[in-house]
# Entry
Amino acid sequence: MMHFTNKLLLLIPALAFSAAAEAQTQFGIKVGGNFLITSQSISPTPKDAPPTPKGLGLQFGAYAKVPFSDMVGLRPEIGFSFRRAKSDQSITTNVPVTDQNGVEGGRADLGVETKTDQRLQYFQIAAPLTLNATENFRVMVGPAIGFLMGGKLNQDVTTTVSNGTFNGQPFKQDPTFTSTVKKGSAATKDFKKAEVAVVAGVGYELEMGLDFDLRYYRAIVPTQDISQPSFRYKSFSNMIELSLGYTFGS
# Structure
């Protein structure tokens, strides 16, 4: 089913561009930013649920305006989407303190702060249907698909020990810090190679050709899927895109 859906989504822009010979088609370019908020599904629900990853990114690409009538048209688009999802989680647990022989002699608060910065690059195709409420204002809704091209993962972990006692004597330790950087397939191994989504939004084009576009992007299949015998993690992309474009020949 996924293979058929991918073919269908790729076919829609091709059909739209082929219709350019018979329709008064216009072309344009756009650039803008995006804000990603990741929806998470974790089973079983953990005691310390991770925070929602989110962050600002950017995107750019090209589009075509294919009118079917004065009110209805198609807006096939291709572009590159650079996304960023950051999260910061702090967990403190009270743990036993043992000597070198493993004999418990006290307790301490162990704090672990994990900062994650996930970056992903997608080649994105969309083909929203446009409904023109006026000559300049439009409403859009339609399918989209993103192909994962690469990524980078930065993870910083800071560990602290506080309120410690051992054999009745207080103690403390200096914080320890570790940093991990993963690139390429090591950073994206749990992510799906294709992300099927729907887009919906509004746009406004000035007579001079400047085009303003605001839309919501929602993945309908998991973007990330980690499955283990006692653990299942899934995430879905929710993204707001704001773009400034220019339509040639307006």
